[in-house]
Write a structure and sequence with these properties.
Blueprint (H helix, E strand, L loop, with lengths): L2 E6 L5 E2 L15 E5 L1 H7 L2 H4 L31 E3 L1 H5 L6 E6 L9 H14 L4 E5 L3 H13 L2 E7 L4 H9 L3 E5 L3 H15 L2 E2 L8 H5 L1 H9 L7 E5 L4 H15 L9 E7 L4 H7 L26 H10 L3 E5 L1 H15 L5 H4 L1 H10 L8 E6 L12
Parallel strand pairs: 5-13, 6-7, 6-9, 7-8, 10-11, 10-13, 11-12
Antiparallel strand pairs: 1-2, 1-3, 4-5
Helix pairs in contact: 4-5, 5-6, 9-10
Length: about 400
Amino acid sequence: MNVTHLECGNCHKEHEANVLQNLCIECGKPLLARYDLTKAAETLTKESLKTRPENLWRYAEVLPVEQAENVVSLGEGFTPLFKAEKLAATLPIKLNLYIKDESTNPTQSFKARGMSAAVSMAKELGVKKVAAPSAGNAAGALAAYASRAGMETFLFMPKDTPRANIIECEQTGANVTLIDGLITDCGKIVAERKDAEGWFDVSTLKEPYRVEGKKTMGYELAEQFDWTLPDVILYPTGGGTGLIGMWKAFDEMEAMGWIDSRRPRMVSVQSIGCAPIVKAFHEGEVFAAEFPNAATVASGLRVPKAIGDFLILDALRKSDGTAVAVSDEDLISAVKEIGAAEGLFCAPEGAACLPALCELIEQDSVKENEMVVIFNTGAGVKYLECFE
C-alpha cells in the first residue's frame, strides 16, 4: 500500500489511512488519500501500462487497496474516448471534440469506478454493511459491488429516482427505501441511523475512496491522449467527485513526471434548476450555499448541496475554468443531437455538456482548434421517463 495518510481537503489535518474514516474529525470536510508517489513511480510507469489489464486497477500503485484479494471488480474503467467529428461539424467553430463515454462501465455509469474502490477498501477494513443516499446511478453501483463483496446494502433514494435505477438496486440485493424528498434528505437519514444500525456511510465524499476510483478518469485521459491533456474538459457536476478526482490525478501524474504543469480548463456543468456550483463560482464564493427548490430531470445533477463544493470551486479557478448552467429543455434536446450525430444514447447529465459548450463558444471562451472533451457519465436508457 503506497497510501501514507489521509489529509483533510480543507484544514489539511492528517488522519490514519488503515482504519475506517469518514469526514475530518476537526472540520467535518472530505478526506483525500495521499501516496508515496516516488515509490509508486518505481513500478507504475508508462511502459508498464502497455501490458496491464484495461481496467481502472491498472493504476494499482495509486489506488488504496493493499491486498489484491480484496479488490472488488466487475471490469470497470478504461472506457472509450471517441472523436466526435460529426457533432463537432455542427458547431460554429472548428474543434477537436471528443466524448469520454462512461456508459460502458459495469452498471452503465461512471459511478462504478468510485464504488469499486470504496467497496474494495471497505472489504479490506472489515465492513459488513454499507449505506448511502442516491438519486440513481450511485445506488445501482453500490448495490452491485457490495453484493459481489458479500456486504449488505441499505439505500435511500428520492421517490422520483428513475425507475430503472430503483429496479436495478432491488434486483442486485439492496434494501431500498424511497423518500419523499431530495438526496440531501436521504443523506440525513443515513447520518442519523448509521451508528445504531452498524452501517458504514459511503455517501459522496463522506468516505475517502470513491474519489480514488473516479480519479482514474484523469489517468485514462492522459494515457489515451498519449500524455498530452486536452485544453478543456466539460464535466456534469452533481456531487462533483469526478471533477475533484481528475484534478487530483493530474497533480499525481505531474509529481511522477508523466505530465507537465499545464492543466485543462475545467468546466462544471449543471442544470438551471439546481446550480449551486455555478452560482457560487460567479459570485466568488469559496463554499456553495444550498440551492433552494432544486429541480431537474437530470437526476444526477439534482444535488442542492455538495460537501466537496470548495474542492470543485478551487479546481475551476486554478484551471482558469468556469461553471455553466443549462436548461432542462436544452439538455434533453442535446441527448438526441449527440445520438443522431455519434450514435451514443447519453444520459441527460452528460448531454448537458453540449449546450454548455455552445454557450462557451458564443462567449469566445473556447477557441478555434482547441481540444475539448465532454464526459457522458451514464447510459440514457436509464432515464426513459425523461423522454416521454
